[in-house]
Every structure is written in C-alpha cells, then in structure tokens.
TrEMBL record:
GO terms for cellular component: apoplast. CDD domains: CuRO_1_LCC_plant, CuRO_2_LCC_plant, CuRO_3_LCC_plant. It comes from Oryza glumipatula. Residues 1-21 form the signal peptide. PANTHER family: LACCASE-14 (PTHR11709:SF262), MULTI-COPPER OXIDASE (PTHR11709). GO terms for molecular function: copper ion binding; hydroquinone:oxygen oxidoreductase activity. This is Laccase.
Length: 579
C-alpha cells in the first residue's frame, strides 16, 4: 500500500499546476501570511503567565480570503516546543501534506524551524479557523479564517453592515503544558479551565477582567454577521445575546437555510455564521450581554468541570443618550448548563441552504457502512510510572478513549510519509474495524467502571470515490464533537439511545441535511454522516475534546489515488519537517 516516490522537480511542476488551478480569470488570488510562534506574557484573572501565540496575538491573526484562493502561510517556530498548524475545515484537495496534524500528516516543526503550508480553498465559503494540532497548544494558538464569496458573487442573504469574528475559548491559570503533563502522569482527568472566554476575555463577571471585556459597538437598524468559533478544548457552549434573536445562516463554511433562534449550541471545532439585527426597543437599555455558557452532559457531582459563563457587551452607540444608565441586560434565554433538550432542539433544526448556487448532493447509495462505538475506557498504568502509579486514575489504571474499542496510538513517524513511501508495515495496521469489537479484561474491570481497551495504530483504507456512511454510537456519558479532516459530510440523522439498523435509517434526512466537518454526537445516542471519499490522501478523524484525542479517540482514513491526475495526491514537498 502506498504511492510512488516522486522527485522534488515534480513538486515544483505540481506547484505550477496548483497556481494555474487558482484561476485569476475568476478572481482567485494567492495570499501570503507569516506566522511567528512566540512565547508572550498575558494576564487574565489577575494572573500573568507566558503562553504560546502567533505574532504575539491571543487569539491569533485572522486570515482573509475568497472562495477558491490559495493561501500560503510560512510558520516560523520561535517558541520552545514542537508544533504544527491545522486549517480546520479546509478540505485541502489532493494536498494532505499541508493539513497539519502531528504524526498523522507531518512531523512537527521543531523550535527554530519553519514550514510553509499551502492552504487550498475550494468549495468552502464562510467561517473556518486555524489552530495548533500538537499537544494542548491550540488553547492559545488559534485564529479565524474568513472566506468571502468569489468576486462577482455575494452572500445568499442581505450583505451585513459589518462582520465580527467571535472566538469562544477557555483559559487556564496554570501552564497548559503542565495541565497535560499532570493528567498523563497521574492517569486522571484533565483539570478544568478556570474560565470560558470571548475573543480571549472572560468578561466583567470575573476578577481583574472588567476593563478588558470585549465590546461590540452597534447602531440601530444595522445587521452584523457574527462569525462564531468554538476554539475551546473541553467545552460545548450555549451562546445568546440579551434582548435579541439570532439568525443562523451557515455552519462550518457551508450555508444553511436561515434559522432564527434564541440561542445556539456550538461544539468545539464548529463554526457558525449568525446574523444579529440591531433592533432594540426605544427607551430600553443601551448595553446587552453576549454570553457563552458551558453545556455539559457529564455527572456534575463526580466530574470536575468549568461551569462559568463568559460575557461580552453589545453596546448601541448611535445616540448621545446611548450611554449606559444601568448594567447590561443578561440573556435570560440562555439554556441551563445541562439542558440536553435545548441542545438537541437546536441542532436538529439545521438544514443546508440547497439553492441553485449552493446545491445539495447527498449520496443515496452507500458503498461502505461503518458503525463506530465511541467510549471512555482505561488502560493499565505505565509500568515505568513508579512514582505516582496513576493515583488519580480509575481503579488504579489511567483514562483512555477509543473508537470501536481501539485506542489510537500515534506512531513515531507520520502516517502520510509511511503510506507515501510504501513503508506502512510496522507504522500502522490497515484493519480498523467497520463494527465494534469486544475486548474485556475481567481481572481489571470487575463489572464496574470504564472498560479496559487496547492500543493500536489502526487505519481504514478506502478506494477513491467510495461513498461512506459512518454511524457514531456514543457509549459514554457525554457528547462528543467528531471531526473529519479532508472532507465535509452530510449529517443525515441523529437520535437518542442505541442505533437501530432496521429502523433508524428510515428517519434520515436525505433532502437537505447540514453539510459539516464536525458533528456533535449526543450522549448515549448516535449521529449518522455520509461523504464521498474523493480526496486522496491521509485524513485524521477524532473527537475535538483534546483530552480525548490524547486518550486515543481517533483513527485515520487513507483514501487511495484515483485514475486521473485530478484524483491523485500532489507529490511530497521537499521541505517537510523531519521527525
């Protein structure tokens, strides 16, 4: 299994072809950015610490482009640790080399090194984002990608008066690397963050935060496009604005039918385009809270979690009398922290736009059916860990996670290189199961607590053009945001309880399901997705709760080359980082 090794000259020729593919006659351009990874001091919650940033900014710089553009980003690692960058939701046609996940499509960029990513925009239009894809670095290394319509075209809704990126995140007072190291050493769960944030700020309900609370200045009668991103590591979030309703018009850089709601629920990894109409009641307050609250399905009495609400302020500035005379109003419509019904009610209303300019192409014939169990498990404590002995782990073990009872183990070299050079033997196994497999060690589990799993670097190999249906079946006590690199997929169904192969497919929406790259799988429920494997390469699939990525809730799809040049991977760039 693999593809032929090609000389560097062919990569240069491929670059010419790539440049020609971005057709200037259609208004597409090549855009250039430089990202410098640096350590920068920031203060939040009365606490100063050094964090990794891009260009000294937290959140990082926004990339602006148009549909079909080529974005070239030269990443210089001036930090103190290895790092990679992922362009979340960008399909990267034929180009897994620039996708970014550590030890999946590349070796990390070492301190003092650099790597130039070629970010190929194709069908995406709307809001995406970029973030680090190594350890827990994306806690502070992230930013928005704004993809405008091609020149000569426009939004499928009235052009907004202003566009505002709104990045939801989390803040830890402790060094995020220490947070990860502690969890791995002690075998327990990751310490919860100390605050949720909106554009890097927790808001004026937190200590030492009032003066830096993010503010949005609006004027009566104007419409604002909020480009909302959940960049958090561990939290689904409810989001609402006091005194205003929101109109959903896009998810994961694909347009939706307009949906007017009181709140949204956005999972880590997801992006949502939302219209805010500035229509306050005359004589009412001039300030309104924009709020983001944790949504959690775990047992509150046994699992530590961040139950905070981040706030920003929407302020009317179009009148001399608009100066605030009383505190901002709080969004009473914001659901409670464990309101699963509110979350499900929102996500089940989403529909693709499905007009002539943005058609829907749901595959009706499926070639490969996969049922994937999602679970939280345990693994034996590391025998070399003689000091702490997993004292915070369950039953004397350490937390793990799995897909179909396989806990993914990252290899020492990246999967893409091994595949490309036909040297996958000993690096990965091509037998990721299509259905759950049983593995229970009764001497460890004793009938209670998380089940033992096993580690492995198992991948799923697909022929080019295969239509795949994946049904994610959650066995755990929490939602899971499942993200697929290299593709968008149609979310054709979801439900509570155990998936019934004979009954539930009849409930699928095959007319206008939402087209996403990250789907929130409900606790103890299921979600079904479909996609056509027409992007050759190596593509990561994983939960977007980062502790679950580290624990092994991951796998890899390898899509083989097709027969035409447009259906084959680009050759390997000569400047890939070395392991």
């Amino acid at each position: 299994m693999g593809t032929a090794k090609l000389p560097a000259l062919l990569w240069l020729l491929a670059g010419v072809v790539l440049a020609l593919a971005v057709n200037p006659a259609h208004g597409a351009k090549t855009r250039h950015y430089d990202f410098f990874i640096t350590e920068t001091n920031y203060t939040r919650l009365c606490h100063e610490k050094s964090i990794l940033t891009v260009n000294g900014q937290f959140p990082g710089p926004t990339i602006y482009a148009r549909k079909g553009d080529l974005v070239i980003v030269n990443v210089h690692n001036d930090g103190n640790k290895n790092i990679t960058i992922h362009w979340h939701g960008v399909d990267q046609p034929q180009n897994p080399w620039s996708d970014g996940p550590e030890f999946i499509t590349q070796c990390p960029i070492r301190p003092g090194g650099n790597f130039t990513y070629q970010v190929i925009l194709s069908e995406e239009e709307g809001t995406l984002w970029w973030h680090a894809h190594s350890d827990f670095d994306r806690a502070t290394v992230h930013g928005a990608i704004v993809i405008h319509p091609k020149r000569g075209t426009t939004f499928p809704f009235k052009k907004p008066d202003k566009e505002i990126p709104v990045i939801l995140g989390e803040w830890w007072n402790d060094d995020i690397e220490h947070v990860l190291d502690k969890a791995q050493l002690l075998g327990g769960d990751v310490d919860p963050s100390n605050a949720n944030t909106i554009n890097g700020q927790p808001g004026d309900m937190f200590p030492c935060s009032r003066d830096d609370t993010f503010k949005v200045a609006v004027q009566q009668g104007n419409t604002y496009l909020l480009r909302i991103i959940n960049a958090g590591l561990t939290n689904d979030m409810f989001f609402a604005i006091a005194g205003h309703r929101l109109t959903m018009v896009g998810i994961d850089a694909r347009y939706t039918k307009p949906l007017t709601v009181d709140y949204i629920m956005i999972a880590p990894g997801q992006t949502m385009d939302v219209l805010l109409e500035a229509k306050r009641t005359l004589g009412s307050n001039s300030q309104y809270y924009m709020a983001a609250r944790t949504f959690i399905t775990l047992p509150l009495d046994t699992i530590p979690f961040n139950n905070s609400t981040a706030t920003a302020i929407v302020e009317y500035t179009d009148s001399a009398t608009a100066r605030p005379v009383r505190p901002p109003e709080f969004p009473v419509q914001l659901p409670a922290i464990k309101d699963e019904n509110a979350a499900m009610a929102f996500v089940t209303q989403l529909r693709s736009l499905g007009n002539q300019e943005h058609p829907v192409h749901v595959p009706t014939h499926v070639d490969e059916h996969m049922l994937i169990d999602i679970d939280i498990n345990v693994l034996p404590c590391d025998p070399t860990n003689m000091v702490e002995k997993c004292k915070e782990g369950p039953q004397g073990n350490r937390f793990a996670a799995s897909l179909n009872n396989v806990s993914f183990q990252s290899p020492a070299i990246d999967v893409l290189d091994a595949y490309y050079y036909n040297s996958g033997h000993g690096v990965y196994e091509e037998d990721f199961p299509n259905k759950p497999t049983a593995f229970v060690d009764p001497t460890v589990n004793n009938g209670s607590g998380p089940l033992m799993t096993k580690r492995g670097t198992k991948v799923k190999v697909l022929e080019y053009g295969t239509v795949v249906e994946v049904v994610f079946h959650d066995l755990s006590s929490e939602n899971h945001p499942m993200h697929l690199h290299g593709f968008a997929f149609y979310v054709v169904g979801r439900g509570n309880g155990t998936f019934d192969e004979s009954r539930d497919p009849a409930t699928y929406n095959l007319v206008d399901p939402p087209f996403q790259n990250t789907v929130s799988v409900p606790r103890s429920g299921w979600a079904a997705i479909r996609f056509r494997a027409d992007n050759p390469g190596v593509w990561f699939m994983h939960c977007h709760f980062d502790r679950h990525v580290v624990w092994g809730m991951d796998t890899v799809f390898i899509v083989k080359d097709g027969k035409t040049p447009q259906a084959q991977m680009l050759p390997r760039p000569p400047n890939m980082p070395q392991c």
